[in-house]
Amino acid sequence: MGAGGSFFEKDETLEVPDAPDNIKSLASRLSQAHGINEAILVHGLAALEPCVQRRLNRAITKPLDLACLRAFKKEMEGQDVAPDVSEALGKLPDSVKPKVEALLDSLHLCGGYLPRIGVGSAGLYKHFEEGERVHEIAYDYGMRMFDCAGPCPTMPGFDKAFARVAIAEQLADKDLSDFVMVGHPDPFQMGVEPGNVKKSLEAHEAEMMPMKREGQPLIDVYAPLCCVRFSEKFEPDEIAFDEVWKECEELHREGKVRALGVCNISAPQLERLLEFCEIRPAVYEAEAHILHHQQAIYDLCRKEKIAFLAHTPLGQGSVLDQQSLGHDTLSPAQAALRFNLDRGVSVLPGAEKLSEIEEDQATPLGPPVARVQVPAAPSMLSMANINKLWKAMIAPNSDMVEREGHWYGKPSEIVRPVRKEVLAQNKAIIEQIHPIIKNLPRKESAATRRKVICEEIAKLADNDDRKLGKMMVIPADVFASRDSIPRRSCKDEGPTPQVDASELPEGAKILFFSQRWLTLTHPDDAEGTKRAAIVAAAGAYAEMEGIDLDKVYIWFDLACVEQDDLAELIRGVNALGLYITACDAFVSIDHPEYWSRAWCLVEQEFARCAGVKRYVISEGKLAPTDHEVTDPRDGNLTVEDDRAAIDVLCLVADDLRSRLYLSAVSQMFSEANLDEAMGKAWHNKDEVPDALRQNIIET
Predict the structure, then answer these.
(1) How far apart are alpha carbons 94 and 152 in whole angstroms?
(2) Are strands 499-500 and 399-403 parallel, antiparallel or unpaired?
(3) Which residues pair with 292 in a beta bridge?
(4) Structure confidence by residue, pLDDT tens digits, 483-505
(5) pTM higher than 0.85 for the full model?
(6) Contact 22, 61 (CB under 8 A)
């Protein structure tokens, strides 16, 4: 079915047979949506309705009802098609049967069980004015699908992100006959006690009752968010996922939900689920976009005829600058959505403006857009942004393992926690950095960010416990005039080459130089190799940008961080991430050991997270780079005790990236991780969750 949307040409000679209103209504909608002959649809739906009635004890009203024909493993009797379904299809006219079979074999593609384009609801309302009727407006734009977690009473911040009551009120009087709501049981309480999944559904129904229609389930797809619960430690042994799934199956048998689904699990985990389940999932939901193809799970879903639903299909906006999205008639966002739509994957894009929702819903269908190449390394942004423990649980090579007759999640790796004493040491620093990050404007220029950073650091000047030093830089032409790298010192007398970054002229550009010191006491060698590299890089950058050298300024640690006042030196080191964020370019000075040193990798990670253009200067030549940054936590250290401090800085970098570029949900989780690092209880705040904690302070 996919983006184009037609199975076969209409046969105008076939008459529409008499059938119940529900059959005619659904056939009419499908015919209009996909160009399928309405008469063929009526014949097929009428023949299949007894099979559906026997399984669901209700009439067919939505395409998703037909998923039950493949869902019940017992009914399949080991065949590709259940015997009663084969019998029903066998009674169809010869001209109709193959076309109905083609329909059934294609319903898992977008536009079949699921609408093609919905809207991602998690954290959506954070971007809009209070009272704005976003879902009602989205409905008028053509939106017919969203996902929504059930109430999470133990996690007020996470719970607030879904605005269930407001959504239900906005859509209460709408025609929902072609609508799909994807619901999720409370991820914090599922599996903790028997019956929690059912309790979550009942609470969900109570809050969104205005959307319920008589004789129909409120939730169309009920899908656990993962095979482990969100908890203190994300430990796989906390719940048996097969028990959670059995509770979901019982809700399906009772007619409480239209179909089952599952989210954020790997291909190996889905294969395990298909082995032990009695009712198969009809829908699989996970992050998928041009930088994260999810090929293994995609191939498995196609093989098993499971509908694939992509959340975060725009990578929270981070994919929109990819050259592969250039198109004559599509916007970058529409081209990005078409990547999934063209391969039969439905999408749930988020938005920060109503115009973005309108643009997404208006994505035109047609011939496939040129496929993009598989990225060198997949970019997981949404659920994986919670923390490393969670990322390991949903990684492509994560699995499930059977113990004592039950199935438990198995992470791809064992994640090392951050040491408690180091977190305590860094608490005061984070408490000063985090508010500055929160005040940074989103997706703005380096100059705009620099202004905010310098102003915020200046506000700390009268603070006796100040942890951050002001940013100083050196004009590139002044740097070039020196025979050696300048050294900043409070002992210097007379004029010094450093200038305050807050006082730079309009159009100024700052280059941050990241490097490995060549000796224990000095970054350069006797020949001045590093100084020469810096001068060459500054000149090359000015030429690339088409600006005069006097517009270029240099940040280099020896030259710009105080060297003879220990307290001020520490303040400068503490602020390194902010300095990088304030720069226009980040230049790595090539050295055999540079790319494996943890502290060098932390600087690279800040540049990546801040979206600063990255370059490499090697043998006197400056070249842009977008190489994948090695995880700083795995880098080499001279002093191994520094490793925990590296962990903390990585949390700060994650928080920075979420603030500058990612969605409200990612911001919520990254901020929560920082709060945990500072020993704060997440449940005391409305903005962030509690029980999602990764317990990084456990030794």
Answers:
(1) 52
(2) unpaired
(3) 289
(4) 999 999 999 988 899 999 999 99
(5) no
(6) yes
